[in-house]
Design goal:
Structural class: alpha/beta
Radius of gyration: 26 Å
Strand order of the largest sheet: 1-2-3-4-5-6-9-10
Distance between the termini: 61 Å
Largest sheet: 8 strands, parallel, barrel
Number of strands: 17
Length: 502
Amino acid sequence: MYLIFFFLLSVIRTSHSALTKPDPLPILPIPSFQQLQWQLGSMAMFLHFGPNTFTDSEWGSGKTDPSVFNPTRFNATQWVRVAKDSGFSRVILTAKHHDGFCLWPSDFTDYSVRSSPWRHGHGDVLAELAGAASDAGVGLGLYLSPWDRHEKSYGKTLEYNEYYLSQMTELLTRYGEIKEVWLDGAKGEGEKDMQYFFETWFSLIHQLQPKADIFSDAGPDVRWVGDEAGVAGSTCWSLFNRSNAKIGATDPLYSKEGDFHGQDWVPAECDVSIRPGWFWHETESPKPAIQLLDIYYNSVGRNCLLLLNVPPNSSGLISEQDIKVLQEFQELRNSIFSNNLARKASLVNASSTRGDNSRFGSGNVIEEGIDKYWAPEEKQTEWELYLEFRDSVSFNVLEVQEPIQMGQRIVSFHLEALNNGIHRWERVVNGTTVGFKRLLRFPRVQSRFLKLVVDKARADPLISYLGIYMDNVSVPSLNTGNATSQDHIEIIQKNNSRVFTA
């Protein structure tokens, strides 16, 4: 009897000691499901297309004859294929730009593709794009400009808001699932005063397309980064106070950096055009791939999504010049980020592990994805991850990711490498916010021992991914406007590397 009792007691004790510690409590605010999917997409392609494409304009007057719109080789499948092959997760079309011309046959205006010679007045750009995107598994978004220079009711608050919402309803009920609705406060000086019922618009959009993220200067789901250069702040929180923002009148610095004390989750989207203009112009050329890579570091690499505008030309196709640059941009990213040297580590360890359980172990940080992560023990004052390699590794890029479904936590961090010659850890680079993804560049380092240190956090820091890479084509803080890849390689060769022998 006593033997049975002690046996049962030991089983109970063993089962209690083997219990897994629960996940840490998320720290608010946290992203919605739609915001998570948006962030995981990393890059979207903007498609500015309309009468401006044919008139060499940026802001149309709203008086251009619809007959100018006639893209004789229009092929939405080509647009989507270029986007997908170049690594873009969704495409966003200017369904109506400021000139008021609609790329779908709207029932509420005669200023649309229905009045053009294209497809003999029976064409629908959005319908063809929606079909191509659905077939390719690429998300679809749309931009419906609030400012309308053609519509006669513009300036009459009630009438125009009814008009705008009627067109929005057409777009959100005819073309399948919409992933993003893009709005802005752009309006030329001296134009009619107009009050937009934004909150009503937002409510209708979420009602008709509950899986769509709404972009504007102030969210509600995604915010503008505050510039059109594709550059986020070096500190960039997804935390934001919508009450501190107003569409068309938000402080650009607040948009760039977000808000450490923010009560809302509103991550930033970085919009920039591959060309000088937003619409296609025959005399313009695309930015070089190396410049797009620099933009990528300063957008996706700073906890944002990159929205790159690639305007179709007057024939209705994305130009071969642009395609070539996009292919080079994709190849550059693959050459750098397809080889995470951290995976070669013979040992990955941490200063502590939550519950001393492998479920939260340090080994999670070299597995892709945000579902698994390293979590330290509670109430610690030091948060460190260690990597040891059998042989020295050379690298000049650091990647850190947080499991943002648990909230954005890290305020500041740094990377150290062991200089065995003097038996001392030396600082390689400092960083502030992380969020979904943080990429930092620095002169080349070579070492066998690395240490990532979280200096400050809003709550116990959680890290889902750690990467180190060798980038042979770019250097930090370089103005890449006119630089070629070879220029970058030569500059790197002139830089002194830090070699920590061990």
